[in-house]
Amino acid sequence: MDIDGVLTDGLIRLDENGVESKTFSTRDGFALVWIRQYGLATGAISGRTSHATELRCKDLRFDEIHLGTVHKLPVLEDILARTGLPAENIAYIGDDILDLPVMLRVGVSAAPADAYSEVLRRVDIVLDGRGGAGAVRHFLDLWLMATGRYETALEDILHGNF
After folding, report:
1. What is the pLDDT of residue 161?
2. Low-confidence ranges of the chain (pLDDT < 70)
């Protein structure tokens, strides 16, 4: 997934000392950790380098973290070559036109409800939530449902098996 506009609201806050801060949804974060036990690998390809983003990706135990890369398709191609995964087994969530080359290459593409209009026209799934406010959670719930794991995952939570 992209980060800014997907895991965040896309706003970058700088204080008077140039220190950057971002806001991440705990619901998105919980879901990203939760689904790992059901076999989904996670990763980020972001055009910006950000200490806050790097910390969050590491905290969420992303399998792939690629920051500061505007040209995202070569990163995806490298991931595919290293892992042996076919592109159709990859899903990508993005919000802006820099994400489109990757989104058009993978098996499933999704975008937050507040993504750029050209992206919304071209994705497979428009998510209910906005970037940084539940879009990723919605996508992961859909993945659990589509793979027949949602009820089991919910039962695991209800019985303390998380």
Report:
1. 82
2. none
Read off the tokens for 139.
């996508």
156 membership: H or E segment, kind and range: helix 150-158
100-53-87-90 Cα dihedral, nearest 10 degrees: -110
The residue type of 48 is R
pTM metric for this prediction:
0.94
Rg (alpha carbons) of the chain, rounded to whole number: 15
CA proximity to 89, closest of 34, 141, 143, 154: 143
Instruction: Give the CATH fold of the 13-158 domain.
Output: Rossmann fold (3.40.50)
The letter for the amino acid at 19 is V
Query: CA–CA distance from 28 to each of 24, 53, 97 (Å)?
Result: 8, 14, 22
In tens, the pLDDT along 2-39 reads 999 999 999 999 999 988 899 999 999 999 999 999 98
- Domain range summary for the chain, segments of one domain joined by +: 13-158
- Distance between CA atoms of 95 and 85, rounded to whole angstroms? 24
Pairwise CA distance, residues 55 & 128, whole Å: 26
